[in-house]
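pinned: reference chain
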Amino acid sequence: MEKKNNISNIEFRCGRVKNILKFETFDVDCIIVDPPRSGIVTKALKRICDLKCKNLIYVSCHPVTLLRDLESFKENGYIVKRIIPVDMFPNTFHIESVVKLELN
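pinned: its structure tokens
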């Protein structure tokens, strides 16, 4: 994507959070997470918070685990700036939520 759009100041890391964050340190501007319905594993959430990334985008398909994880992010200095509901599955009760958090 970055080559197609002639962007040179971006780097993508895709994979399981526990594998990507296990050994490396990062200086990042934004983290995007899209965890399973069970939410972010506690160790991974702690590691994400330890990075002190200014911007975080959280994509969730389960309101209960979203709330739980947002509470943890709040305890680590993040504030919710915006929540956007996305109806990915019309005529069902399922909804995706995209949340923008910023480190306070």
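why pinned: Residues 17-96 form a domain with the Rossmann fold fold (CATH 3.40.50.150). The helical segments are 17-20, 42-50, 63-75.
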